UniProtKB/TrEMBL annotation:
Native organism: Shewanella hanedai
Name of this protein: 2-C-methyl-D-erythritol 4-phosphate cytidylyltransferase
Keyword Nucleotidyltransferase: yes
Site (Positions MEP for the nucleophilic attack): R156, K212
UniProt KW keywords: Isoprene biosynthesis, Nucleotidyltransferase, Transferase
Listed GO MF terms: 2-C-methyl-D-erythritol 4-phosphate cytidylyltransferase activity
UniProt keyword Nucleotidyltransferase present: yes
Protein encoded by which gene: ispD
Sequence similarity: Belongs to the IspD/TarI cytidylyltransferase family. IspD subfamily.
PANTHER family: 2-C-METHYL-D-ERYTHRITOL 4-PHOSPHATE CYTIDYLYLTRANSFERASE, CHLOROPLASTIC
Catalytic activity: 2-C-methyl-D-erythritol 4-phosphate + CTP + H(+) = 4-CDP-2-C-methyl-D-erythritol + diphosphate
Function of the molecule: Catalyzes the formation of 4-diphosphocytidyl-2-C-methyl-D-erythritol from CTP and 2-C-methyl-D-erythritol 4-phosphate (MEP).
GO BP term, pick one: isopentenyl diphosphate biosynthetic process, methylerythritol 4-phosphate pathway
Length: 228
């Protein structure tokens, strides 16, 4: 395919408060092996040879970012994020060239590998409209009822966990995300905005260790994964 211009801009939503983590400081500043999660995530992106620029969305009241060693990296730019993850992503997308590819990656996923980034970038040949890293569900899937019992077993064929990064042409993602938000569509990841616009993004099987740190237990898992 014609990549038009092969400029890759990483977009990192890091403006959340980490309420499910249940601690005082935003989870992206919790440390694993004495390094803040956001620092770990940024260093993976900043050291990837194909990533030209990294734009990070920060909470308006963020006081910690400037203390990270990565904060002064020449490839890095910051913007103020919004009320929801999608608003933060959109704030970043307003700062990228129309023809650049946006590689959107959660600050809270510090176990991403360069080989998974390479796999996603290479998938543009197969999925020119963009793709996401994902992992097929492994367990038997149940739909529950409000009373805590099982309504039914759900067929797990073709069910995937959506991971990040998610890769789309910046201008297309920006237009679809902004239109989906105006229409109050449910947009929990970039692919949902593209799906809303009638596009079928590709699914690229990624490393299951690329977890999102959401609950306290995830910190222990991430530490284990990063040790290997
Ligand atoms: N308004 C928001 C909300 C979330 N995020 C970012 O989006 C990523 C994934 O979101 P999630 O895990 O839900 O983070 P939080 O919103 O911080 O967590 P919680 O939902 O538990 O409050 C995180 O890197 C988070 O910082 C963001 O940039 N802007
Ligand atoms: C984008 C995401 O990480 C994909 O798994 C996820 O949707 C983020 O938000 P969530 O609220 O934790 O689902």
């Amino acid at each position: 395919m014609n990549h038009r211009q092969d400029k890759i801009v990483a977009v990192v939503p890091a403006a959340g408060i980490g309420s499910r983590m249940g601690v005082e400081i935003p989870k992206q500043y919790l440390e694993i092996n004495e390094t803040p999660i956001l620092g770990l995530t940024l260093s993976i992106l900043l050291t990837h040879p194909k990533i030209d620029k990294v734009i990070v969305a920060l909470h308006p009241q963020d006081t910690r970012f400037h203390s990270l060693p990565e904060a002064s990296h020449p490839k890095l730019q910051t913007v103020i994020g919004g009320g929801e993850r999608a608003d933060s992503v959109l704030a970043c997308l307003k700062n990228i060239d129309d023809e650049a590819w946006a590689l959107v990656h959660d600050a809270a996923r510090p176990c991403l590998t360069h080989s998974d980034i390479d796999k996603l970038l290479a998938s543009r040949e197969q999925f020119p409209q963009g793709a996401i890293l994902a992992s097929p569900v492994r367990d038997t899937m149940k739909r529950g009822k409000c009373d805590g019992t099982i309504e039914k077993t759900v067929c797990r064929d073709q069910l995937w966990h959506a991971l990040t990064p998610q890769l789309f042409l910046g201008v297309e993602l920006r237009d679809n995300l902004s239109a989906a938000l105006i229409e109050n569509a449910t947009v929990t990841d970039e692919a949902s905005a593209m799906e809303w616009a009638g596009i079928s993004p590709g699914l690229v099987s990624g490393n299951v260790q690329n977890i999102k740190i959401t609950h306290p237990d995830d910190l222990r898992l991430a530490k284990l994964f990063l040790a290997h």
